[in-house]
Amino acid sequence: MSNYRERLSVPVRWWIIAALAVLTILVITAVPAGKPIGFTVAGVAAVILVVLFVRYGGAVVEVGPSTLHAGRATIERTHLGKVEPLTGEAVRNAFGRDCDPTAYLVLRSYLPGAVRVEITDPHDPTPYWLIATRSPERLAAALTENSVARS
Predict the structure, then answer these.
(1) Which sequence ranges are marked TM in the entry (predicted)?
(2) Other CB atoms within 10 A of residue 99 CB
(3) Strand partners, 85
(4) What is the DSSP letter of 2?
(5) Does some domain include residue 150?
(6) How far is CA 35 from the centre of its chain?
(7) Domain range holding 35?
(8) How many domains are there within the chain?
(9) Residuewise pLDDT in 10s, the chain (151 residues)
(10) 44 with 84, same domain?
(11) pTM of the model
């Protein structure tokens, strides 16, 4: 059972833009080369875009009773320190000029917020995780409520 779960799926407007791009590819290839080639090229482009969007938007952030899972990484909650929700300019700075190159990032440019989670494990070279989210306050609350004992 998890305290918080969010799939970082791409927004609907990206799917609309992708559909229009595939339609454009169909037209610009079908007119000079014929309909079969146009549909083939557009079909390949559509498959590539769907795979990319599903893969990119397939990242999951999940807070369980004893673990935090973000993207491809998982960490025990006993190794988590200060949790800070970020919005607006703070998010842009955190992912940009203020970002530590050794931090673990789950960046999704289309999401309005983020949470910075300090890592207290002395054996982990990562100082913090920076996780993009639609609900920074809810994610931060899930990470701080019922926290497991800090080591």
Answers:
(1) 12-31, 37-56
(2) 14
(3) 115
(4) -
(5) no
(6) 37
(7) 4-56
(8) 2
(9) 668 999 999 999 999 999 999 999 999 999 999 999 999 999 999 999 999 999 888 899 999 989 999 999 999 999 999 999 999 999 999 999 999 999 999 999 899 999 999 999 999 999 999 999 999 999 999 998 755 444 3
(10) no
(11) 0.79
